[in-house]
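HOLO CASE FILE
Compound: zinc ion
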Amino acid sequence: MSEKRLCPVCKDPIIGRIDKKFCSDQCRNSFNNRRYSSDNTLVQKVNRTLKKNYHILQSLNKSGKSKVKRSKLLQEGFDFSYFTGIYTTQKGACYHLCYDQGYLPLSDELYLLIYWDA
Ligand SMILES: [Zn+2]
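Model generated. Tokens follow.
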């Protein structure tokens, strides 16, 4: 078997062991760096969204316990798909947490915001 394998970074043929994936250490490093930096971008994006959510909750919940309309949250740019945890009370209420801010849907349109004293 003399199938030519090509380096995924520089497209040069790979010479040497069959399990070799890159032509050189340099190419392997630059591939791994690239992969790491795209992971980083994702992490940064999620972190930014969480931070934004957190600031929105904080700004709408100055007293530590407030009711706010869903439309208000959306208008501020709140993203309901990102949170840091879920807490279910004994009564079955399911709070979503964003760091030390929590929110609970009271109805389709109304949310209870609480300061989560963990
Ligand atoms: Zn290469």
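CASE NOTES: The mean pLDDT is 92. Residues 7, 9-10, 12, 22-24, 27 surround zinc ion (CB under 6 Å).
CLOSED: yes
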